[in-house]
Design a protein that fits this description.
The protein is of the alpha+beta class. It is 15% helix and 18% strand. The protein has a domain at 1-65. It contains 1 helix and 4 strands. The protein is elongated and about 75 Å long. Bound molecules: zinc ion.
């Protein structure tokens, strides 16, 4: 169900969840009871701007716009000094 925004003249903006097309033009404020008019706003139906949308957008972008790097991964000051995993001791040394 969509979320509709109402502006209370005494308090602030509050949300009301109603069925599509069932939102009243005015409703009492849940805090003070003053009749509040519906605020014209974009419907909150899209996932645009959400964490899921940013993840999908970044994944698509990295397919054709990979980030520019200045060195090999694992080198530089961010490289760990050692590994604590005992299985890594069996790996061949460079
Ligand atoms: Zn109010």
């Amino acid at each position: 169900m969509p979320t509709y925004e109402y502006r209370c003249p005494e308090c602030a903006v509050f949300d009301l969840i109603c069925g599509m097309g069932e939102a009243p033009d005015s409703t009492p404020c849940p805090s003070c009871g003053t009749m509040s008019r519906r605020k014209m706003s974009a419907p909150h139906l899209s996932i645009a701007g959400s964490a899921e949308f940013r993840l999908i957008d970044n994944s698509k972008r990295s397919a054709h716009e990979p980030p520019v790097v200045t060195g090999l991964p694992g080198q530089g000051k961010n490289r760990p000094a050692y590994t604590a995993n005992p299985l890594h001791h069996k790996l061949p040394r460079p």
